[in-house]
Amino acid sequence: MARGPAQVPDGRARPRRLREGDTVALVAPAGPVTEEQVAQGVGVLESWGLTVRVGDHVLDRHPTLPYLAGRDADRAADLVEAWCHPEVRAVFCARGGYGAHRMVDLLDWPAMADAGPKALVGGSDATALHTAFGQALDVVTLFAPMVSTALFDDEARKHLHSTLFDPESVTTLIGPATTSSGHGRATGTLVGGTLSLLAAEVGTLDAAPPPDGSILVLEDVTEAPYRLDGMLTHLQRAGWFTGVSGIALGSWEHCGPLEEVKAVMSDLLGALGVPVLWELGFGHCAGSLTVPLGAEAVLDADDATLTLTGPALS
Questions:
Q1: Which residues of 272-305 are buried (b: 16+ CB within 10 A; e: fewer)?
Q2: Annotated catalytic residue: which of 101, 124, 159, 196?
Protein backbone atom coordinates (compact mmCIF):
# COMPACT_ATOMS: atom_id res chain seq x y z
CA MET A 1 0.00 0.00 0.00
CA ALA A 2 1.12 3.57 -0.57
CA ARG A 3 2.65 5.23 2.45
CA GLY A 4 0.76 8.20 3.83
CA PRO A 5 1.57 10.01 7.07
CA ALA A 6 -1.09 10.56 9.69
CA GLN A 7 -2.20 14.11 10.29
CA VAL A 8 -0.97 14.80 13.82
CA PRO A 9 -1.03 18.54 14.57
CA ASP A 10 1.45 18.87 17.45
CA GLY A 11 4.29 16.38 17.47
CA ARG A 12 4.02 12.62 17.90
CA ALA A 13 0.69 11.29 19.07
CA ARG A 14 0.81 9.44 22.40
CA PRO A 15 -1.34 6.30 22.57
CA ARG A 16 -3.72 5.95 25.50
CA ARG A 17 -2.37 4.03 28.47
CA LEU A 18 -3.76 0.57 29.11
CA ARG A 19 -6.35 -0.29 31.73
CA GLU A 20 -7.50 -3.64 33.08
CA GLY A 21 -10.17 -5.02 30.78
CA ASP A 22 -8.60 -3.59 27.61
CA THR A 23 -8.17 -5.75 24.53
CA VAL A 24 -4.70 -6.14 23.00
CA ALA A 25 -3.30 -8.16 20.09
CA LEU A 26 -0.34 -10.53 19.76
CA VAL A 27 1.28 -10.83 16.32
CA ALA A 28 4.41 -12.46 14.86
CA PRO A 29 5.84 -10.04 12.26
CA ALA A 30 9.26 -11.67 12.05
CA GLY A 31 10.61 -15.06 13.20
CA PRO A 32 8.55 -18.20 13.89
CA VAL A 33 6.84 -18.64 17.24
CA THR A 34 6.03 -21.89 19.04
CA GLU A 35 2.79 -22.71 20.81
CA GLU A 36 4.67 -22.56 24.11
CA GLN A 37 5.96 -19.07 23.33
CA VAL A 38 2.50 -17.87 22.37
CA ALA A 39 1.09 -19.34 25.58
CA GLN A 40 3.76 -17.51 27.59
CA GLY A 41 2.96 -14.15 26.01
CA VAL A 42 -0.79 -14.60 26.31
CA GLY A 43 -0.43 -15.74 29.91
CA VAL A 44 1.53 -12.65 30.92
CA LEU A 45 -0.87 -10.26 29.21
CA GLU A 46 -3.91 -11.97 30.68
CA SER A 47 -2.31 -11.80 34.14
CA TRP A 48 -2.34 -8.02 33.66
CA GLY A 49 -6.12 -8.10 33.25
CA LEU A 50 -6.05 -7.81 29.45
CA THR A 51 -8.04 -9.67 26.83
CA VAL A 52 -5.73 -11.01 24.11
CA ARG A 53 -6.50 -11.48 20.42
CA VAL A 54 -3.92 -13.74 18.76
CA GLY A 55 -3.24 -13.13 15.08
CA ASP A 56 -4.55 -15.75 12.66
CA HIS A 57 -1.06 -16.46 11.31
CA VAL A 58 1.02 -16.29 14.50
CA LEU A 59 1.84 -20.01 14.41
CA ASP A 60 2.41 -20.14 10.64
CA ARG A 61 5.66 -21.21 9.04
CA HIS A 62 6.87 -19.95 5.69
CA PRO A 63 6.71 -22.85 3.20
CA THR A 64 10.35 -22.51 2.08
CA LEU A 65 12.07 -20.04 4.45
CA PRO A 66 12.12 -21.54 7.96
CA TYR A 67 13.31 -18.32 9.60
CA LEU A 68 9.98 -16.58 8.86
CA ALA A 69 6.68 -16.85 10.72
CA GLY A 70 4.58 -17.37 7.63
CA ARG A 71 4.35 -15.53 4.33
CA ASP A 72 5.08 -11.81 4.20
CA ALA A 73 1.52 -10.94 3.15
CA ASP A 74 0.02 -12.99 5.98
CA ARG A 75 2.25 -11.46 8.64
CA ALA A 76 1.39 -8.01 7.32
CA ALA A 77 -2.33 -8.85 7.29
CA ASP A 78 -2.21 -9.89 10.95
CA LEU A 79 -0.57 -6.62 11.92
CA VAL A 80 -3.01 -4.49 9.92
CA GLU A 81 -6.02 -6.39 11.29
CA ALA A 82 -4.76 -6.00 14.84
CA TRP A 83 -4.01 -2.29 14.49
CA CYS A 84 -7.30 -1.48 12.79
CA HIS A 85 -9.54 -3.54 15.08
CA PRO A 86 -11.65 -1.01 16.99
CA GLU A 87 -11.32 -2.81 20.34
CA VAL A 88 -7.54 -3.30 20.27
CA ARG A 89 -5.59 -0.77 22.36
CA ALA A 90 -2.05 -2.14 21.87
CA VAL A 91 -0.24 -4.52 19.53
CA PHE A 92 2.51 -6.74 20.95
CA CYS A 93 5.17 -8.43 18.81
CA ALA A 94 5.69 -11.98 20.08
CA ARG A 95 9.38 -12.19 19.19
CA GLY A 96 12.05 -10.80 16.89
CA GLY A 97 14.42 -12.80 14.73
CA TYR A 98 14.12 -11.60 11.15
CA GLY A 99 11.28 -10.66 8.84
CA ALA A 100 9.63 -7.33 9.71
CA HIS A 101 11.84 -5.59 7.16
CA ARG A 102 10.32 -7.80 4.42
CA MET A 103 6.67 -7.03 5.11
CA VAL A 104 6.66 -3.39 6.25
CA ASP A 105 5.83 -2.07 2.77
CA LEU A 106 2.80 -4.38 2.59
CA LEU A 107 1.03 -2.60 5.45
CA ASP A 108 -2.11 -0.58 4.70
CA TRP A 109 -0.89 2.76 6.03
CA PRO A 110 -3.99 4.85 5.21
CA ALA A 111 -6.24 2.38 7.04
CA MET A 112 -3.84 2.24 9.99
CA ALA A 113 -3.70 6.03 10.17
CA ASP A 114 -7.49 6.14 10.29
CA ALA A 115 -7.48 3.69 13.22
CA GLY A 116 -5.79 6.27 15.44
CA PRO A 117 -2.79 5.98 17.76
CA LYS A 118 -2.22 2.71 19.62
CA ALA A 119 0.78 1.26 21.41
CA LEU A 120 3.18 -0.81 19.31
CA VAL A 121 5.28 -2.95 21.67
CA GLY A 122 8.41 -4.85 20.66
CA GLY A 123 12.17 -4.67 20.16
CA SER A 124 15.01 -6.12 18.11
CA ASP A 125 13.74 -6.85 14.56
CA ALA A 126 10.67 -4.71 15.28
CA THR A 127 13.02 -1.71 14.89
CA ALA A 128 11.93 -1.73 11.23
CA LEU A 129 8.33 -1.31 12.39
CA HIS A 130 9.17 1.41 14.90
CA THR A 131 10.90 3.43 12.19
CA ALA A 132 8.05 2.97 9.71
CA PHE A 133 5.34 3.72 12.28
CA GLY A 134 7.16 6.87 13.31
CA GLN A 135 7.41 8.06 9.72
CA ALA A 136 3.95 7.03 8.52
CA LEU A 137 1.75 7.36 11.62
CA ASP A 138 3.69 9.91 13.71
CA VAL A 139 2.97 7.93 16.88
CA VAL A 140 5.07 7.16 19.96
CA THR A 141 6.03 3.47 19.99
CA LEU A 142 7.57 1.29 22.70
CA PHE A 143 10.95 -0.36 22.07
CA ALA A 144 10.51 -3.14 24.58
CA PRO A 145 11.39 -6.75 25.42
CA MET A 146 9.25 -9.32 23.60
CA VAL A 147 6.50 -10.93 25.68
CA SER A 148 7.01 -14.43 24.25
CA THR A 149 10.78 -14.72 24.77
CA ALA A 150 13.10 -15.93 27.50
CA LEU A 151 14.43 -12.39 28.02
CA PHE A 152 11.02 -11.26 29.26
CA ASP A 153 12.03 -11.70 32.89
CA ASP A 154 10.44 -10.28 36.05
CA GLU A 155 12.23 -6.92 35.91
CA ALA A 156 11.50 -6.46 32.21
CA ARG A 157 7.83 -7.31 32.82
CA LYS A 158 7.60 -4.87 35.70
CA HIS A 159 9.03 -1.96 33.71
CA LEU A 160 6.90 -2.65 30.64
CA HIS A 161 3.77 -2.99 32.79
CA SER A 162 4.51 0.33 34.46
CA THR A 163 5.13 2.02 31.11
CA LEU A 164 1.80 0.76 29.78
CA PHE A 165 -0.42 1.20 32.85
CA ASP A 166 1.30 3.88 34.98
CA PRO A 167 3.66 5.77 32.64
CA GLU A 168 4.22 8.64 35.09
CA SER A 169 6.08 6.21 37.37
CA VAL A 170 8.85 5.39 34.86
CA THR A 171 9.88 8.67 33.29
CA THR A 172 13.54 8.35 34.35
CA LEU A 173 15.51 5.59 32.63
CA ILE A 174 18.74 4.33 34.18
CA GLY A 175 20.27 0.87 34.30
CA PRO A 176 22.26 -0.79 37.11
CA ALA A 177 25.59 -0.11 35.36
CA THR A 178 24.88 3.17 33.54
CA THR A 179 27.81 5.55 33.08
CA SER A 180 28.46 8.48 30.77
CA SER A 181 31.13 10.14 28.70
CA GLY A 182 31.23 13.83 28.06
CA HIS A 183 29.29 16.46 29.96
CA GLY A 184 26.15 18.49 29.58
CA ARG A 185 22.56 17.86 28.62
CA ALA A 186 20.77 17.09 25.39
CA THR A 187 17.05 17.50 24.80
CA GLY A 188 15.23 15.92 21.89
CA THR A 189 13.11 13.17 20.42
CA LEU A 190 14.14 9.56 21.13
CA VAL A 191 14.92 7.66 17.92
CA GLY A 192 16.73 4.44 17.05
CA GLY A 193 16.60 0.84 18.23
CA THR A 194 18.70 -2.11 17.09
CA LEU A 195 21.76 -0.91 15.17
CA SER A 196 21.83 -3.60 12.49
CA LEU A 197 18.19 -2.90 11.54
CA LEU A 198 18.79 0.84 11.36
CA ALA A 199 21.79 0.33 9.09
CA ALA A 200 19.80 -2.04 6.87
CA GLU A 201 17.12 0.60 6.34
CA VAL A 202 19.44 3.12 4.68
CA GLY A 203 18.09 3.70 1.18
CA THR A 204 14.51 2.65 2.01
CA LEU A 205 11.35 4.74 2.38
CA ASP A 206 11.94 5.01 6.12
CA ALA A 207 15.62 5.93 6.01
CA ALA A 208 15.38 9.66 6.72
CA PRO A 209 18.13 10.65 9.18
CA PRO A 210 16.95 11.65 12.66
CA PRO A 211 15.67 15.22 12.85
CA ASP A 212 17.88 17.87 14.40
CA GLY A 213 18.15 17.59 18.15
CA SER A 214 17.31 13.88 18.33
CA ILE A 215 18.59 11.58 21.06
CA LEU A 216 19.71 8.33 19.48
CA VAL A 217 19.27 5.01 21.33
CA LEU A 218 21.29 2.03 20.07
CA GLU A 219 21.81 -1.62 21.00
CA ASP A 220 22.46 -4.95 19.29
CA VAL A 221 23.19 -8.64 19.82
CA THR A 222 25.59 -11.22 18.32
CA GLU A 223 27.43 -8.70 16.16
CA ALA A 224 31.24 -8.70 16.27
CA PRO A 225 32.99 -5.36 16.99
CA TYR A 226 34.14 -5.00 13.37
CA ARG A 227 30.53 -5.49 12.25
CA LEU A 228 29.35 -2.78 14.65
CA ASP A 229 32.10 -0.55 13.26
CA GLY A 230 30.82 -1.15 9.72
CA MET A 231 27.23 -0.38 10.61
CA LEU A 232 28.08 2.84 12.43
CA THR A 233 30.38 3.92 9.61
CA HIS A 234 27.60 3.19 7.10
CA LEU A 235 25.18 5.39 9.04
CA GLN A 236 27.77 8.15 9.40
CA ARG A 237 28.49 8.16 5.66
CA ALA A 238 24.73 8.37 5.03
CA GLY A 239 24.56 11.55 7.13
CA TRP A 240 22.64 9.80 9.86
CA PHE A 241 24.32 11.47 12.84
CA THR A 242 24.19 15.05 11.60
CA GLY A 243 21.30 16.15 13.80
CA VAL A 244 21.93 13.93 16.82
CA SER A 245 22.34 15.86 20.09
CA GLY A 246 22.93 12.90 22.43
CA ILE A 247 23.32 9.12 22.37
CA ALA A 248 22.12 6.44 24.82
CA LEU A 249 23.68 2.99 24.36
CA GLY A 250 22.02 -0.16 25.63
CA SER A 251 23.21 -3.76 25.75
CA TRP A 252 25.70 -5.45 23.40
CA GLU A 253 25.11 -9.07 24.37
CA HIS A 254 27.37 -11.60 22.62
CA CYS A 255 29.08 -8.84 20.62
CA GLY A 256 32.53 -9.70 21.95
CA PRO A 257 34.40 -8.23 24.92
CA LEU A 258 32.61 -5.13 26.17
CA GLU A 259 35.87 -3.16 26.18
CA GLU A 260 36.26 -3.83 22.45
CA VAL A 261 32.71 -2.69 21.82
CA LYS A 262 33.33 0.46 23.86
CA ALA A 263 36.51 1.11 21.88
CA VAL A 264 34.54 1.00 18.62
CA MET A 265 31.82 3.27 19.99
CA SER A 266 34.29 5.74 21.47
CA ASP A 267 36.30 5.92 18.26
CA LEU A 268 33.30 6.56 16.00
CA LEU A 269 30.85 8.36 18.28
CA GLY A 270 33.31 10.34 20.38
CA ALA A 271 34.11 12.59 17.45
CA LEU A 272 30.49 13.77 17.35
CA GLY A 273 31.05 15.85 20.49
CA VAL A 274 27.70 14.94 22.07
CA PRO A 275 27.02 13.43 25.50
CA VAL A 276 26.84 9.63 25.53
CA LEU A 277 25.31 7.24 28.06
CA TRP A 278 26.69 3.70 28.36
CA GLU A 279 24.83 0.57 29.44
CA LEU A 280 21.45 2.21 29.95
CA GLY A 281 19.89 -1.21 30.44
CA PHE A 282 17.70 -1.71 27.36
CA GLY A 283 17.96 -4.21 24.53
CA HIS A 284 18.85 -7.92 24.57
CA CYS A 285 19.67 -8.06 28.27
CA ALA A 286 18.21 -9.17 31.56
CA GLY A 287 15.82 -6.68 33.11
CA SER A 288 15.54 -4.73 29.86
CA LEU A 289 13.97 -1.29 30.13
CA THR A 290 11.20 -0.12 27.81
CA VAL A 291 12.17 2.95 25.77
CA PRO A 292 9.41 5.07 24.17
CA LEU A 293 10.59 6.05 20.70
CA GLY A 294 9.22 9.34 19.45
CA ALA A 295 8.89 10.71 22.99
CA GLU A 296 10.73 13.82 24.13
CA ALA A 297 13.52 13.32 26.66
CA VAL A 298 16.52 14.92 28.36
CA LEU A 299 19.86 13.12 28.42
CA ASP A 300 22.00 14.32 31.34
CA ALA A 301 25.59 13.11 31.09
CA ASP A 302 26.52 14.49 34.49
CA ASP A 303 23.78 12.48 36.25
CA ALA A 304 23.96 9.58 33.74
CA THR A 305 20.18 9.61 33.27
CA LEU A 306 17.67 9.72 30.45
CA THR A 307 14.46 11.41 31.57
CA LEU A 308 11.25 11.74 29.60
CA THR A 309 9.74 15.21 29.62
CA GLY A 310 6.34 13.61 30.15
CA PRO A 311 4.70 10.17 30.35
CA ALA A 312 5.09 8.00 27.25
CA LEU A 313 1.36 7.31 27.03
CA SER A 314 -1.56 9.64 27.58
A1: bebbbbbbbbbbbbebbbbbbbbbbbbbbbeebb
A2: 124
- Judge whether residue 2 has pLDDT over 60: no
**pLDDT of 9 over the 50 cut:** no
Q: Is 71's pLDDT higher than 70?
A: yes
Do 68 and 62 contact (CB within 8 A), yes or no?
yes
Q: Among 81, 101, 159, 219, which one carries the catalytic annotation?
A: 219
* Phi-psi region at 287: left, alpha or beta (left = phi > 0; alpha = psi -120 to 50): left
Region 178-190 average pLDDT: 91
Q: How far apart are CA 287 and CA 158, in angstroms?
A: 9
pLDDT, average across residues 203-224: 91
219 catalytic, yes or no? yes
The rounded distance, in Å, linking the Cα atoms of 71 and 226 is 33
Bridge partners of 13? Answer: 139
Exposure of 83 by Cβ count < 10 A (0-12 exposed, 13-18 middle, 19+ buried)? buried
Q: Spell out the residues 6+ positions from residue 67 whose beta carbon is closer than 8 angstroms to its own.
A: 31, 32, 97, 98, 99
Please tell me the predicted confidence (pLDDT) of residue 11. 65
Residue 221 and residue 283 in contact, taking contact as beta carbons nearer than 8 Å:
yes
Catalytic residue among 101, 130, 159, 284: 284
Burial class (CB in 10 A: 0-12, 13-18, 19+), 73: exposed
Quote the pTM value: 0.95
Neighbours of 69 (CB within 10 A): 26
Report the pLDDT averaged over residues 136-143: 97
Residue range 151-180: mean pLDDT, rounded: 95
130 labelled catalytic: no
Is the CB of residue 84 less than 8 Å from the CB of residue 115? yes
Would residue 35 show up in a list of annotated catalytic residues for this protein?
no
List the beta bridge partners of residue 179. 278
